[in-house]
Amino acid sequence: MNFLSHYYFDRDATDCYFTLGTVLPDLLKNADKTIVLHPEKLTHTNPKVNSIITGWNKHLLVDKYFHSSEFFLHHSHALKNLLRPAIEGSPVKPFFLGHIGVELILDSLLITTNRISVDDFYDHLDSCDLGIINEFLAFAGMKNTEVFGKFYEGFKKSRYLHSYANLEQVTYALKRICMRVWRDPFTPVHETAMTEVVLSYRLLLLDSFMEIYEEIGEKLGS
After folding, report:
1. How large is the angle between the packed helices 70-86 and 94-112, nearest 10 degrees?
2. Residue 222 has what pLDDT?
């Protein structure tokens, strides 16, 4: 699941460090895909650092439930098949695009159906002290915490997730993610065709997408 989908399950939480932890694995991948941390079983003397670890473990659990769900398996496969002809000639693997596409569509739907507040999400991130975050990162084994700090400040400042309300921006987000692996992954023709597929699939999911949140929520006991 993507940032806002993870946030959905703890949208009423009041601990900003826990909220940060629920999205931090993905933030780190965005900052530098070579960063690999495994703080799952660590315990720190600072309760704020421990809150990040607790949130981190919640992230892993939600992703486990999501990626093994019939919802994800079905819709990522179906979207892959619809996107395959739209990106013909592109180096991007259709299964990768189907996986990421479903996650971005879900985030977009959460915004446009007013299930979450993007501003509230960013308010949580703004409330976290970078010193505590760096303390966590160093404790988890990261050598150069400045790499993440620079990305994190830019992520908060851009308020980029607001753009997911616009379907064309969802296509742009797909392109940006793919550009981490492939240079110039799509032509303008590809992007137009992808937008049409994403828009169509979003409409398909509109009436039923909350089923996956309800399913995961039950497994989490929430």
Report:
1. 110
2. 60
Work out the burial of residue 5: count CB atoms within 10 Å of its CB; fewer than 13 is exposed, 13-18 middle, 19 or more buried: buried
Mean pLDDT of the chain: 95
Q: Where are the domains of the chain?
A: 3-220
Q: Identify the band that residue 172 occupies on the pLDDT scale cut at 50, 70 and 90.
A: confident
Which residue would you say has higher pLDDT here, 184 or 75?
A: 75
CB-based burial label for 140 (10 Å; 0-12, 13-18, 19+): buried
Q: With 0.85 as the threshold, say if the pTM is over it.
A: yes
Query: Which residues, at least 6 apart from 188, have a Cβ–Cβ distance to it below 8 Å?
Result: none
| 200-213 average pLDDT score | 97
Measured at the CA of 28, the angle between CA 70 and CA 9, to 5 degrees, comes to 45
Which pairs from 35-43 meet CB under 8 Å and 24+ separation?
A: 35/142, 35/147, 35/148, 37/137, 37/140, 37/141, 37/142, 38/140, 38/141, 39/136, 39/139, 39/140, 39/141, 42/139, 42/140
For 93, residues 6+ apart whose C-beta sits below 8 A from its C-beta are none
DSSP state letters, 174-187: HHHHHTTTSSS---
